Amino acid sequence: MLLHTLFVIALAAESMSAALAAGRRNMDWFGVCVLGCVTALGGGTARDLLLGHYPLLWVDQPAYLLVTTAAALFTIAVARIMERLKLIFLLLDAVGLVVFTISGCMVAMEMGQPVLIVIVAGIITGCVGGVLRDVLCNDVPLLFSGELYATVSAITACVFFFGIQAGFPVELMTIAAMVLGFTLRTLAIVFKIEMPRFVYVPVRDQSSKR
């Protein structure tokens, strides 16, 4: 029950953050709603398609489409005050990351998938929606720009899966993985912890600068 409640909250939060991104790109209202739905539901949809898990999440639960659409439209109405709530949205995004990751792991585990697929399914569910949002907004995906994002998702998935394999109750491991993942993501946000970057400058470009 707790996971489902947080899942719905995360859907709304992801849709609202996407709506703000759409506003910065001057999209019309339809574009705002589409981007909100794609961001909130894209990870779960990609996971279901790759695993052959049908019906798709939002087909099985059409109410999720209503939640994400309503959240996107609500954002249009209150966008001016939302910039003041940037930190809150970052924290809600962290909640969404860990909740989506765990739900993705659960789906793969229910299908009897091996450990690697379970972890990848969790990462896809947690991260792909944000990648789709950034691509549609013509931005470099946050996932690939140094943010400690996919790593947190992977750690969350591993803790959840291996904890259950060790015999701990699902409820306990759900809470433990959520707390750990949320804490790591929050620390990364507060202290600006990033992944190492790969910077390659061809030799001929170095020579031309001299």
From TrEMBL:
Q: Where would you find the membrane-spanning parts of this chain?
A: 63-81, 88-109, 115-136, 148-166, 172-191
Q: Give the superkingdom in one word.
A: Bacteria
Which positions carry the signal peptide feature in this UniProt record? 1-21
- What InterPro entries does this protein map onto? Gly_transporter (IPR005115)
Q: Report how it sits in the membrane.
A: Multi-pass membrane protein
UniProtKB keywords: Cell membrane, Membrane, Signal, Transmembrane, Transmembrane helix
Where in the numbering of this chain does the Glycine transporter domain appear? Answer: 6-79, 91-162
Q: Where in the cell is it found?
A: Cell membrane
Q: Which Pfam families match?
A: Gly_transporter
Which family does the entry's similarity section mention? Belongs to the UPF0126 family.
Query: What PANTHER family does the record point to?
Result: INNER MEMBRANE PROTEIN, UPF0126 INNER MEMBRANE PROTEIN YADS-RELATED
Name by which UniProt lists this protein = Trimeric intracellular cation channel family protein
